[in-house]
Amino acid sequence: MSIVIRDVREHELDSILALNNAAGPTILPLDAARFRKFYDSAEYFRIAERDGTLAGFLVGFGSDADHDSSNFHWFRAHCDRFFYIDRIVVASRRRGGGVGRAFYADAQSYAELRYPLLTCEVFLEHDADPVRLFHGSFGFHEIGQHVMPESGIRASMMSKDMCSYPWVRDTYGEDLPDEPWLQRPRAPSAVANA
């Protein structure tokens, strides 16, 4: 039962949107247009498959992105440069099976070469202790709280230092070696121009 993490494919958007909107109160529902915007502009939009079946997805943006989330803008006001995990959703039947950890390992591997901080938020209203414990065990800590004006939901704003980033920046700057494992997941501008 291996977990495969790969870039999302356009024909999968309806299934991923349905997974998002069935996730429960810890994930805000989206409409198809908003979800399409993620596909067109997210720096990182990957799915997890287990046994050939959709098990979850993760969407992330770099700090320079044109992203309209109030949580993203909170991080932009409080942090210089960061990679923001906008949402992670794991299918209910797959929770507790390592999919979340696999996603965070993949996202961290991507972020640590490009950003000094990995950031995310956890909603505090809906029995958040298991989710906060998960993030704490992965090295995140709260750097503040934010009430989302569009929903009134209070979120714990969390970050994690990317320990490898200073060495990578000092050694390579913005010019990472041309290796397949270092390529950006689905470059949004390449998709938009295709």
Structure description:
This protein has 194 residues and is of the alpha+beta class. The chain has a single domain, classed as 3-Layer(aba) Sandwich (Aminopeptidase), CATH 3.40.630. Helix content is 33%, strand content 27%. It contains seven helices and seven strands. It has a seven-stranded mixed sheet with strand order 1-2-3-4-5-7-6, sandwiched between helices. A hairpin with a 6-residue loop joins strand 6 and strand 7. It is globular and about 45 Å long. The C terminus is likely disordered.
Overall average pLDDT: 86
Note the gap between the termini. 35 Å
**Cα-based radius of gyration, to the nearest Å:** 16 Å
Number of domains: 1
**Biggest pleated sheet:** 7 strands, mixed
Report the structural category.
alpha+beta
**Helical percent range?**
25-40%
Count of helix runs: 7
CATH topology: Aminopeptidase
CATH superfamily: Gcn5-related N-acetyltransferase (GNAT)
Coarse morphology? globular
Topology:
Blueprint: E1 3-7, H1 13-21, H2 32-41, E2 44-50, E3 53-62, H3 70-78, E4 83-90, H4 99-111, E5 117-123, H5 129-137, E6 141-147, E7 154-161, H6 165-172, H7 188-193
Parallel strand pairs: 4-5
Antiparallel strand pairs: 1-2, 2-3, 3-4, 5-7, 6-7
